[in-house]
Specification:
This protein is an alpha+beta fold. The protein is built from one helix and five strands, in the order ββββαβ. A five-stranded antiparallel β-sheet has the order 4-3-2-1-5, covered by helices on one side.
């Protein structure tokens, strides 16, 4: 039985404003790098650049929704995706 490939995703929170309803930061996975902005009151997650965005959008959304209250400005976080980037 072969195991699924895994990729570690690193997240850094660069902006956090509860009053504005926004969390922003940087994402890195293998050779990909993105900037994100999560407008949680509007339910919008923006990820740029577009290259590889479809790979990270859903896993990042799940991570942010699960840990949103635990995230801090300047914090470094990581999670694992069951796919290879």
């Amino acid at each position: 039985m072969t195991s699924l490939p895994e990729t570690t995703v690193y997240v850094r929170i660069t902006q956090y404003s509860w009053t504005m309803g926004k969390i922003a930061g940087e994402i890195e996975a293998r050779n990909y790098q993105w900037q994100f902005q999560w407008r949680f009151r509007e339910g919008k997650l923006l990820v740029n650049p577009t290259l590889g965005r479809s790979l990270i959008l859903e896993p990042l959304s799940r991570f942010l929704e699960r840990y949103d209250y635990q995230l801090e400005l300047g914090g470094d976080y990581q999670f694992t995706v069951k796919s290879q980037f």
